[in-house]
C-alpha cells in the first residue's frame, strides 16, 4: 500500500486545499446542507481523560486523518491502498460519500461506518497532550526502524520511514509544536531524507540522524516532566502506538505472508517504542496494580516476537487476529490502571 503514498499525497494535498476553501463561514444564502464538494462546520470537543488522537478509539475524520489513521480502515476491510484512495477523494460532505464516490462499497462501508466521521475534533486538556505525545512517539517509531535498516545497509528500505514523519505526521502536529514554542525541525527531517536518498554512505548521515531524533525528544520535553512520567498518561500514548501498529500489521499480512514490508516495519517501530515507554513506568504500575503490570509486560514481550527483525520473514509469525488479541489484552489492563489512577485522584 505505501508504495503509492508519495504519489497520492500530492493528489491528496490538492484535495485538502479544496477542503480549506470549502470550510469558509457560510453566508445566509448558502447555509443549507453542504454539497458534495463542501465540508460541514460541525465540531466535536474532546477534553480531559478522553483521547481522540492518533490511535485512539474515537471516530476517524476522513477529511483530515493522516494515512496511519486511515490504515485502520484498510486493515479492517483488507482493501490495498485504501488509505490513499480515501485521501485522494477528499473532501467528503458526509461519511456516506465514501460509497457515492466509489471509494468503497456499501457492504464495506457498513463494516466501518461506526468509526467514520467528518466532524472536526477539537482536543483540549490532557487529550490534546496525549495526541501531541502520540504523534511524536509515532515519529520516533518510524526513525527507530529506519536506523535498524540503515545499520543493515538497506538505505532504500530506510528512506520511507524517514519520510513518513515529514509527509504524514509533522503537518498534523505542527500547530501544537508552534503553540508549545518548539523549535522547527521539519527541515532537519527533510535534509536527512534527502541525504539517505542521495548519499547514504556519507559520514554526515549518522550525525544528522542523531540530531533529528534529539529534535523529537526536545519536542516531547515541551510537556511537563511529571506528566510524561505519569502511568495513566503514558499508557494512553502506548495504546495509541499499539493501535497504529495493529492497523499497520493487519495491512501488511496477506495469506499468512508479509505482503507489505513497509507496513510490517512501521508496526515494528511502533511496538519497539511502546515497549521502551512502558519500561519507564513499569515500576510505578507494579506498585499500584501488580497483576496489570504482569499482564502488560507479558503481552508486550509476546508482541515483540511478532517482528523478529527489521527485514520481514517469509512467513508471518502471527496472524493479524493474534496481534489484535495481544494488543487488546494490553489495553484492557492499561485501562484498569488508568481507572484506578482516576479513582485515587478523585479521593
From TrEMBL:
This is DNA uptake protein. Residues 24-57 are annotated as: Disordered. Residues 24-45 have a biased composition (Low complexity). SUPFAM superfamilies: PsbU/PolX domain-like. The lineage of its organism: Bacteria, Bacillati, Cyanobacteriota, Cyanophyceae, Nostocales. Gene3D superfamilies: Photosystem II 12 kDa extrinsic protein. Keywords: Signal. Residues 1-21 form the signal peptide.
Amino acid at each position: 500500500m505505501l508504495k503509492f503514498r508519495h504519489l497520492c499525497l500530492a493528489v491528496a494535498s490538492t484535495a485538502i486545499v479544496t477542503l480549506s476553501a470549502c470550510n469558509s463561514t457560510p453566508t445566509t444564502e448558502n447555509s443549507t446542507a453542504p454539497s458534495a464538494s463542501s465540508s460541514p462546520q460541525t465540531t466535536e470537543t474532546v477534553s480531559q481523560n478522553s483521547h481522540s488522537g492518533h490511535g485512539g478509539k474515537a471516530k476517524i475524520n476522513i477529511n483530515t486523518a493522516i494515512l496511519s489513521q486511515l490504515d485502520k480502515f484498510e486493515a479492517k476491510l483488507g482493501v490495498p491502498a485504501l488509505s490513499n484512495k480515501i485521501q485522494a477523494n477528499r473532501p467528503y460532505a458526509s461519511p456516506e460519500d465514501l460509497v457515492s464516490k466509489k471509494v468503497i462499497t456499501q457492504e464495506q462501508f457498513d463494516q466501518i461506518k461506526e468509526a467514520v466521521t467528518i466532524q472536526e475534533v477539537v482536543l483540549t486538556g490532557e487529550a490534546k497532550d496525549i495526541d501531541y505525545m502520540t504523534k511524536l512517539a509515532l515519529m520516533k517509531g518510524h526513525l527507530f526502524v529506519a536506523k535498524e535498516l540503515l545499520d543493515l545497509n538497506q538505505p532504500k528500505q530506510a528512506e520511507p520511514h524517514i519520510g513518513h514523519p515529514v509527509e504524514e505526521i509533522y503537518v498534523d502536529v505542527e500547530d501544537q509544536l508552534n503553540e508549545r514554542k518548539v523549535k522547527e525541525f521539519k527541515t532537519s527531517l527533510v535534509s536527512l531524507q534527502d541525504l539517505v536518498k542521495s548519499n547514504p554512505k556519507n559520514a554526515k548521515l549518522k550525525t544528522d540522524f542523531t540530531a533529528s531524533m534529539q529534535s523529537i525528544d526536545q519536542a516531547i520535553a515541551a510537556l511537563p516532566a511529571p506528566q510524561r512520567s505519569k502511568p495513566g498518561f503514558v499508557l494512553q500514548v502506548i495504546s495509541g502506538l499499539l493501535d497504529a501498529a495493529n492497523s499497520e500489521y493487519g495491512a501488511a499480512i496477506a495469506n499468512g505472508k508479509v505482503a507489505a514490508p513497509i507496513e510490517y516495519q512501521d508496526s515494528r517501530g511502533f511496538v519497539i517504542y511502546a515497549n521502551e515507554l512502558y519500561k519507564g513506568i513499569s515500576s510505578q504500575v507494579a506498585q499500584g496494580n501488580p497483576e496489570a503490570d504482569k499482564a502488560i509486560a507479558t503481552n508486550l514481550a509476546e508482541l515483540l516476537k511478532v517482528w523478529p527483525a527489521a527485514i520481514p520473514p517469509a512467513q508471518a509469525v502471527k496472524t493479524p487476529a493474534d496481534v489484535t488479541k495481544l494488543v487488546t489484552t494490553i489495553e484492557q489492563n492499561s485501562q484498569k490502571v488508568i481507572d484506578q489512577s482516576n479513582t485515587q485522584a478523585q479521593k
